[in-house]
Amino acid sequence: MVSEHAPSSTAQVLVASNRGPITYTLGEDGTLDAKRGGGGLVSGLSAVDDKLWVCAALGDGDREAVRRGVGEPGVRMLDIDAEVHADAYNGIANSVLWFVHHLLYQTPVEPVFDAEFRRQWASYETYNRAFARALAEEAGPGAAVLVQDYHLALVPGMLRELRPDLRIGHFSHTPWAPVDYFRLLPDDIGEQLLRGILGADRAAFLTRRWADAFISCCTEILGGTGRTRIGVHGLGADADFLRRRSQEADVDERMAALREQVGEGRKTIVRVDRTELSKNIVRGLHAYRTLLETHPEWRERVVHVAFAYPSRQDLAVYRDYTAAVQTLATEINGAYGTESWTPVLLHVNDDFARSLAAYRLADVALVNPIRDGMNLVAKEVPVVSDHGCALVLSREAGAYEELGEDAIVVNPYDVVGTAQALHEALSMSAEERTGRTKRLAEAATALPPQQWFLDQLEALRQE
Ligand code: F6P
Predict the structure, then answer these.
(1) Which of 49, 199, 325, 447 supports an S-S bond with 160, CB 3.0-4.6 Å?
(2) Same structural domain for residues 223 and 243?
């Protein structure tokens, strides 16, 4: 053990992720307002008592909270230099690693790995090192450390050097790139990423497909995965929470408002996403327009309820994508809408209660990502659906491995095929829909977040 990093605390379970469970906003009067986040990791971690969550301060509010010593027990926020963080998060994690794993590049013109990339990469290393050092300080002897995602791919290797006594796991919430695509990265960078993750005792993924892609990269580039074990843990929907939350009064209110906007007797095609390039919202709208064109019998009888919540707006490509979604929705409404019918209801302001209301009343859920680690929306809709919902699902979503049999499966690039799938979904008999929704909900809840987390912890401790 390196004495400089001798443990100062006794935490036995540590989690590290870029985004933590809490965000602080700095008010004009100087007060700090704390907002708790949700998601699988937050629910999963609630299964464990003695734990520490190490995360990055993401905005001015978070940084101010760290400086004032404001915080939650069990959370340590790292006040990493804002420019270093921006390079690592926006420059490398979101503009390079996310693009590689989701196959998002327009390869005739990008990526270009130039001197600017190398400069940002140095920040990515600095940012990963800050996490490794903090974890080395905080972990009790022999503790289990679960490192999350592509932001922190170098942490396991760095932490292993500082604290060889620890049990280290790495979990990827994204897909993993096929080896030929992974090789777009400069050779030394690709190797560094793989070796970083292989510093863990265990590297885990959401599906077998992503785990196999990682193994292929390791085998072809490094000759194997060394001593690191590979695991698969398919995070499921949190059924208890969703069923309870979706019956609360604010959700009922949103349902009444949505019903009114949709109009009496009309069917709904619902999608709920972050406005994220990989979610394929633009092709989803093209498919809907194709449906109205090729099946005019649906005009006036269906509404596409599309919730596309802002994401990564620091990046121009995300801002452009958000604008493209809005332009296309407006175009469709202009071309087909009537006085009494708005074909697309697009909402861009994040509202969890309204999302649950849309889940409950959806006749069809459209989940058509280009590529997705899992996609929890595909799992959540069947769980809270009031009257059964037909699921149109991309075969490139991780959820396809578990839900493919009872979904209507699409190739996300095939707009004509997706339009046909929407028609099929809208035409499905109530009886068939009910049967499929029941089976989808069972498959979707097979591994609740708490169990998902405990399984990883147990596997890490056993090996
Ligand atoms: O959905 C996959 C994922 O990697 C999550 O694990 C993670 O929280 C998210 O993407 C990152 O999004 P953001 O950039 O908004 O933090």
Answers:
(1) 199
(2) no
List the CATH number of the domain containing 62: 3.40.50.2000
pTM for this predicted structure? 0.96
User: What is the whole-number distance in angstroms between the Cα of residue 313 and the centre of ligand 1?
Assistant: 14
Same domain for 74 and 115: yes
Quick one: 170 and 288 in the same domain? Answer: no
Q: What are phi and psi of 443, to 5 degrees?
A: -65, -35
Output the pLDDT for position 50.
84
The residue nearest atom 14 of ligand 1, judged by CA position, is 312
Quick one: which of 333, 383, 358, 337 has its CA closest to 256? 358
Q: Which among 66, 96, 99 is positioned nearest to 81, based on CA atoms?
A: 66
Measured from CB, residues less than 6 Å from any atom of ligand 1 are 19, 149, 173-174, 311-312, 373
Domain that residue 437 falls in: 239-444
Which residue owns the Cα nearest ligand 1 atom 4?
173
- Tokens, residue 304: 């596409």
Q: For residue 302, what are the contacts with CB-CB under 8 A and spacing of at least 6?
A: 266, 267, 268, 269, 291, 343, 426
- Residue 148 Cα: closest atom of ligand 1: 6
Residue 253 pLDDT > 60: yes
Ligand 1 nearest atom to the CA of residue 94, by list position: 14
| Contact (CB, 8 A) for 26 and 64 | yes
169 in the same domain as 299 = no
* Cα-to-centroid distance, 149 and ligand 1 (Å): 8
Whether residue 2 lies inside any domain: the answer is no
Tens-place pLDDT, residues 148-184 = 999 999 999 999 999 999 999 999 999 999 999 999 9
If one counts the domains in the chain, the total is 2
Closest atom of ligand 1 to 18 CA is 16
Residues 281 and 231 in one domain: no
